[in-house]
Amino acid sequence: MLSTFKLGETKYVKIKLINPDGLPFVIDKSLYKLEDEKGVIVSEGDALIEENTLRMRLTPKEKGKHKLTITFWILDTIRITSLIVLVG
Asked: What whole-number distance in Å separates Cα of residue 44 and Cα of residue 58?
């Protein structure tokens, strides 16, 4: 997955989670971290949980390719997903 920003923009990145079996679920907790190309964490915090959607407000401060990692908890499982954030 990919999200693009212009330097200086503040935007929300949203991730919608879907149960492949179509069953309802509750996200108990979610965290995110945004890392630059060197692996330095430039932003981190709690992702906002809106039913089955996770929302993060990001303001990347440098141009380049960043990695956004989202960790979330559903019942007794911990899931981790990542996406690329391009800042130009």
From this structure: 9
